[in-house]
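Hi R.,

Here's the chain you asked about this morning:
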Amino acid sequence: MMEGLKILLIEDEDVLALLVKESLETRGFEVSVASNGVDGWARYNLLKPDVCIVDIMMPRKDGYALVADIRLVDDLTPIIFLTAKTRVEDVLKGLDIGADDYIKKPFSMEELIMRIKVLVRRSSINSNSIVPPYHNKKLGKLTFDPFALKVYIGDNTIDLSKREAELLDLLIEHKNRLTERRIALIKLWGNDDIFSARSMDVYITRLRKFLRNDPALDIVNVRGQGYMLTERQS
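And the predicted structure, written out as tokens:
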């Protein structure tokens, strides 16, 4: 059930914050609003919300710093960034810090609610699932731990977000075979709309950066179809 979910909205534009709050409340959500990152951190610790919606550009403490603080103590609560930024680098930074998704201003309430529902549904499934037997996955020179959300390269360790780990796990499952774009979107995002597709492209870009540590590995874009994780034999 989505009704009664506690939403923490951290947004310094008063009019936008009020519109989002009222729209969410008419759909049964409980919404608390903070106008800057410092107050947002205080409200997060007080409320322990089910979902955080965080603007990136805010006074006193920006969204990047706030989400970094939250992720130090909480790996599970879904976080959605609100952003007016359009550069891939800015979106990558937000996902790297620990956001689960992002939505660009201006946005429709229907899109925001859809994203909340997808994240909450997936978070609920993950938290109630039986953990499968522990095992790492070898990929060239890399070792991937899907449950600890880590990639090991020699003595170095790379921390992954939940979404990055899910996508990498799916690509490994279909290694040297096509991972169809639509199937991946529906399985991981819950739909195959243009916003989810753009989000997946950002994660693919980030995973490619990790895989550069092994020249035998690559993620190939199969135009109009999907992606293929390839491993060349030495």
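The domain at 137-231 is CATH 1.10.10.10 (Arc Repressor Mutant, subunit A).

Let me know if you need anything else.
M.
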